[in-house]
Structure formats: C-alpha cells, structure tokens
C-alpha cells in the first residue's frame, strides 16, 4: 500500500503521512494476547483472567474508537452537560472547500470555533433583553462521509438555551437554521480568506450561490430534559468511528469490498463496491494527525 501511494493516491489524498505506519501496526496487534496482556486478579475470591491489550488508536480501529465514544458519552452526561434540554447541531460545507482542510488540518479548529460562534450569536440575538447571554457547546470534527470520502464537518451538542450574567437559565427553543447556514458560511469564508486560501474570484463565486450554497445547518435532533439515556446516545454518536464493521463485507469472488450506505437495508442497490486498496486509502485518510484535537 505504501509503495503504491505516490502513484495511485497522492494526487487525491496528499503525501503519505509517516505516523500511519505505527497506527496500522498497532491495530494489527490490537486484542491479540501474543502482543501483550494484563492479568486481573481478585484478592477476595482469588479468581483471575487475562485481558489483551488494545491499540487505543484514533480514527482507524473501530473497536477502540467505539470504547472511546462510550467513555466520552458517559463523561459528558455525568460531568459536563447541564440537566436541560439539548440539541444536536450539524454543519457542513461544499465540496469545493474540503481540500483546504485536507491539506491544512489545523483549520479544523477554526471550523469548530465557527460552529460555536454561529449558535452563540443567534441564540444571544433571540434572547431579547437578556444581558451577558452565553450558551455552551461540545463540538466534534468528523472527516468521513457516508462512503468514507473525505468530508470534514462538525457535529455538536448544545443546550437549547443559555445562561445570563447571573447564571440563570434562559431557554431558547427555536433557532432559525437558514440564518445559521448563512452565518456559518460567512464565518468559514472569512477565515479561509484571512488565511490567504481563497481568492477574490472564488469568494465571489461562492457568495453568488444564493439557494444551493453547499453549506448546511441542521438541529432537528433534540433530547428532552431528564432523558439521560438519550443524551448519552447522542453524545456517543458525536464521536462515532468513521468505519463500521457491520456495513462492510468482503466479496471474495469479485475481490471487492462491499460497503452499505448508512441507514439502508442492505439491498444490492444500497451497496457501493470498492477495490480493496482504494477502500483502504479512504480509511487511512480518516486517521487524525497526532496531537490534533477533534473534540472541542
């Protein structure tokens, strides 16, 4: 795979990133007793058993990613989120802009900031007469599309309201998603221009798209106050792994990887077929850079 990268995939996904070698090697040893294990012993009943060590990789190992998501969701529910109603916010951008984030992954932090500022400003505008209004948010960057194509977007969980300067809860049950889409678009285009990545011509082109802009904002998924299980499910979804083992199948006869579209029934027309190396390249591109935070 590494030997073929320059010829087959560099033009689409950029240069081979050296840390991928270590991530893949650790994944191949994940869960194998031969690669290391811990011995668990009970002083009272004297029972014992062995636990194979895991790779703890991000964005590549579905098992470790699922464990990470479960721990993350429990932490949010127990330690971070207030006992109020919450909504999931999802922001995405057009295909034309996605390569900027592929080659400049440090911009994903600015994408998270644009997500928060969009919701904060619209809620503060709706909180008429409330001084020092502020809401909270947990934002997670997702880089995978439905078929593991590179599709940077943000998933966030935010309270359906905020707090005034005295710490009093101020509910905001409705925020206009059309306004959120426009505001988010302006923020993203502004910081890309400030980074020197957008020319005036391309900026004018993107701003001229009045109806189908390629940007989107959704907040239809909500969790009512007191629904702890629903809140934990939503929090786990934010940090879901890009690759789903349940949706992936191997067709040995055709030497192809079959990947079922998300939410489909598994009918033939719901499947997408990939050359094995093409599919692996898509998976490898979802591995985040070391020390690059995807949770804000």
Commentary on this structure:
It is a single chain. The chain has 296 residues and is α+β, with helices and mostly antiparallel strands. It has one domain (2-284). The protein has helices spanning 2-8, 10-13, 19-29, 62-80, 98-103, 108-126, 177-194, 200-208, 228-238, 276-284, and strands at 37-41, 48-52, 86-92, 138-144, 150-159, 161-163, 169-171, 216-218, 222-223, 248-251, 256-260, 271-274. Strands 3, 4, 5, 8 and 9 form a five-stranded antiparallel beta sheet that branches.
- Proportion of residues in helical segments: 25-40%
- Domains, number: 1
Strand content: 15-25%
Total count of helical runs of at least 4 residues: 10
Q: What distinguishing features does this structure have?
A:
alpha+beta, 38% helix, 12 strands, three-stranded antiparallel β-sheet, 296 residues, globular, 10 helices, five-stranded antiparallel β-sheet
What is this entry, summarized?
With 296 residues, the protein is of the alpha+beta class.
Present the secondary structure layout:
Blueprint: H1 2-8, H2 10-13, H3 19-29, E1 37-41, E2 48-52, H4 62-80, E3 86-92, H5 98-103, H6 108-126, E4 138-144, E5 150-159, E6 161-163, E7 169-171, H7 177-194, H8 200-208, E8 216-218, E9 222-223, H9 228-238, E10 248-251, E11 256-260, E12 271-274, H10 276-284
Antiparallel strand pairs: 1-2, 3-5, 3-8, 3-9, 4-5, 6-7, 10-11, 11-12
């Amino acid at each position: 795979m590494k030997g073929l990268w320059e010829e087959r995939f560099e033009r689409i996904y950029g240069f081979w990133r050296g840390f991928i070698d270590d991530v893949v090697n650790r994944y191949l040893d994940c869960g194998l007793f031969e690669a290391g294990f811990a011995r668990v012993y009970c002083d009272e009943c004297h029972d014992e058993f062995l636990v194979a060590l895991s790779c703890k990789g991000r964005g590549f190992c579905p098992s470790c990613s699922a464990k990470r998501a479960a721990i993350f969701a429990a932490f949010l529910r127990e330690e971070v989120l207030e006992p109020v109603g919450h909504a999931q916010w999802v922001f995405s951008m057009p295909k034309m802009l996605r390569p900027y984030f592929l080659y400049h992954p440090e911009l994903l932090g600015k994408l998270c900031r644009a997500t928060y500022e969009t919701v904060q400003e619209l809620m503060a505008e709706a909180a008429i007469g409330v001084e020092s209004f502020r809401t909270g948010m947990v934002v997670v960057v997702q880089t995978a599309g439905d078929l593991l194509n590179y599709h940077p977007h943000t998933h966030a969980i935010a309270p359906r309201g905020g707090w005034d300067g005295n710490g009093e809860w101020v509910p905001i049950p409705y925020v206009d998603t059309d306004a959120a889409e426009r505001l988010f678009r302006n923020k993203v285009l502004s910081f890309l221009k400030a980074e020197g990545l957008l020319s005036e011509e391309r900026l004018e082109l993107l701003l001229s798209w009045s109806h189908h802009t390629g940007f989107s904002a959704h907040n239809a998924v909500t969790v009512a106050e007191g629904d702890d299980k629903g809140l934990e499910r939503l929090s786990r979804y934010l940090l879901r792994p890009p690759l789903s083992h349940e949706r992936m199948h191997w067709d040995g006869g055709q030497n192809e990887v079959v990947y079922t579209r998300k939410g489909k029934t598994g009918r033939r027309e719901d499947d997408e077929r990939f050359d094995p190396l093409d599919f692996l390249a898509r998976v490898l591109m979802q591995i985040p850079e070391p020390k690059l935070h995807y949770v804000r």
